[in-house]
Amino acid sequence: MKKQTEIEKNVLSVSEITGLIKQTLEENFYEINVIGEISNYKAHVSGHWYFTLKDSGAQISCTMWRGVNNYVFFAPQDGMKVVITGRLTLYAPRGSYQIDVRSMKPAGEGELQAAFEKLKKKLAAEGLFDEKYKKPIPKYPAKIGIVTAIDGAAFQDMKSIASRRYPLVELVIASCKVQGENAAEDIAKNIKLLNLQKDIDLIIVGRGGGSLEDLWAFNEEIVARAIFDSELPVISAVGHEIDFTISDFVADLRAATPSAAMELATPDKDELFAFIDEFSYYFPEKMTEIISGHRDEIRKLLSSYGFRLPQDMISGKSQYLDSLVYRFQNIYENKLSVLKNQLTLLESKLQSHDIENVLRKGFSIVKQNGKYVPRLKNFKEKDAFDIKFFDGEVKIK
Amino acid sequence: MSKKKEISFEELLKRLQEISDSLESGTVGLDQSIKLYEEGIGLAKTCYTTLKEAELKVTELKKQLENNIKE
After folding, report:
1. In the predicted model, is pLDDT for residue A65 greater than 90?
2. CB–CB of A273 and B48 under 8 A?
3. Sheet holding B57-60, edge to edge
4. Considering its fold, how many domains does chain B have in total?
5. CA distances from A45 to A42, A49, A101 (A)
6. For the domain that residue B66 is a member of, what is the CATH number?
7. pLDDT digits (tens, 9 = 90+) for A330-339
8. Which CATH architecture fits A114-267?
9. Which fold does the domain A2-107 belong to in CATH?
10. Could you tell me if the ipTM is greater than 0.85?
11. Alpha helices per DSSP H over A232-304
12. Most B CBs within 10 Å: which of A172, A203, A290, A292, as the mutation test of the B interface?
């Protein structure tokens, strides 16, 4: 109480009084925790943060130096309620006091959720989630870039699924931190890095399950923009089914989990084998079907009227030929039989004139110079002649 | 390094599908179907062995590549 009155007696300079206030403040408020809502937050190029903390009745300005602020796992946003630790300092030149903040945490899950909704609305309004920007996912990727922690369970799962389903693919792991400070920047950088490679077909960005705070990196704007700007299609696979992050909304495809992502990204070897087998089993049958189809066609053709025509002609001709032959035979036979008849007639006539028969009847025949003499006029009186009787001949001088 | 010059597995499968479609359509002549069929069987064998012998390849993108990112 006594010190108080001395100050009133002697007159102090501004600096003196400010010095005293500074001392009082800095000695008594060396270790403070303050809860309040962030407003006019500015991240200076130097990396230092400047913002004010307010509530309904008051506000207090704060600074957070670069070396310290990169330990904050989230990017502060105006309107976010946070709890900070730090100490009070007085900035003499402007006679203002401020909190030199050493650490910052969201005032509760709700804060993060609120920040999430805010960023979601903002990016949605900008069209980052629009369907028309969604790129198709390649069906047979030759190379898949993966942005996750190389030592994380998520990566192990993805590897085993890839080798089970489609070992033809090559996985290119761009490893990075997936939570805590600078995780978001790390993820964004790796997405850009993969886009620089020439032959990557697809990127999977993700991590295993965790709390909202653990997954927060995937709710940061820097990751959302990196995904949106990626020329390669991106599958986002963060946490479990129930976890939805901003990166899920921006990505070309959202997978419930990292394993699900790999299943969506790769064809199934067994299905491919089935397709190939089908070809090796089904198509021989198909070929025989085609060939027998052609054979039937040929048979149909052969039996068709067009083809039968020559056949018919031939059979027609041969039939005609037969009929000719038949007629010829008839004629021939008739002729033959006529001739035969005549022959037999002549024969019988001959028969009747047969000399033997005459001699047998008692007549005799005169033969001269070996010839029979049927008429007197043929008889030569001077020549010798024979008389032939039935039972012998006699020579007459 | 890029694998593009080899015929990719995808192209093999696409050709296999094309052959199967044209055989299925039945609009292809007999000689052509036989030629297609033989090509198909050859393709099926290659696809089969490629898939059978494939082993997962995992490579890590080296950190030193980082510096060529234009910030």
Report:
1. yes
2. yes
3. A253-254, A234-238, A202-207, A143-148, A170-175, B57-60
4. 1
5. 9, 9, 18
6. 1.10.287
7. 888 888 888 8
8. 3-Layer(aba) Sandwich (3.40)
9. OB fold (Dihydrolipoamide Acetyltransferase, E2P) (2.40.50)
10. no
11. 246-250, 258-265, 269-302
12. A290
